[in-house]
Amino acid sequence: MRIISGTYKGRRISAPGNITARPTTDFAKEGLFNLLNNRIDFEDIDVLDLFAGIGSISIEFVSRGCRSAISIEQNERQCAFIRKICNELKITNLNLLKTDVFKFINSCHSKFDLIFADPPYELNQLTEIPDLIFNQQLLKPGGLFILEHSAKNSFTSHPKFADHRKYGNVNFSFFAEK
To answer: First-to-last CA distance in the chain?
Structure first.
C-alpha cells in the first residue's frame, strides 16, 4: 500500500500476509483520488470508510487533511493493523470502530460529507448498500457516496447514481442527492 498524496505522501505500508481484505489497488486509488481532487476540498470534510480493510482509503483521506475519518471494520487482524499504522504515523483524527457495517449504518446518527464503501465483491447485500446509505440519511447536503465493486454490478439505474469509473478490474459507482 502506498500513500499517494498529502502529509504522508510516498510512505509505503506493507499489509500483513494474514489479512482477509482485498485492498484497493494503488492504480485504482490514485485514479479515484485524482478525480476527487478536482471535486472536493479534502480539508473541510468528514469521511466514513465502510469495510475499511487495512485502512488504505481512510489513511489517504487523513493524509490529504480531512477533518475526521471514521473507519468501520469487523476483522480484528485488520483493525490491529490500522491501529498500528495510526500509532506509527501519529494519526489522531481517524476513529476506528470494530463493528459490523450494517449494524453501524442502522444505528448511526451522524452525517458525512463523503462515504466510501469497499465491501467484499461477493457480499450478498452489496447491491443494498446505496439504499441503506440514503434511507439512513448519512450524507450531508451535497455529500458523495462511493461504492467499490466488481464489473458484474451496475448501479446506473439507481435514482441517486451520478457517475461510474473503472480502473483495471476495480469499479467505482458514485451516488449523490440530485
So the answer is: 34
Angle at 91 between CA 87 and CA 93, to 5 degrees: 135
Residue written as grid cell 448498500: 129
Is the pLDDT reported for residue 22 higher than 80? no
Structural domains in the chain plus CATH codes: 26-176 (3.40.50.150)
For the record, the C-alpha cell of 7 comes out as 502529509
DSSP H or E stretch at residue 115? strand 112-117
Cβ atoms 58, 47 nearer than 8 A: yes
What is the gyration radius of the CA atoms in the chain, in angstroms?
15
C-alpha to C-alpha distance for 170 and 165, rounded to whole angstroms: 8
pTM of the model as a whole: 0.95
Please name the residues in contact with 14: beta carbons below 8 A apart, sequence gap of 6 or more. Answer: 1
- Smallest Cα–Cα separation from 104: which of 145, 50, 149? 50
Determine the average pLDDT of the residues in 75-81. Answer: 93
State the helix-helix crossing angle for 56-63 and 26-37, rounded to 10 degrees: 40
DSSP state letters, 6-43: STTTT-B-PPPTT----PPPHHHHHHHHHHHHTT--GG
**Cβ neighbour number for residue 166 with a 10 Å cutoff:** 11
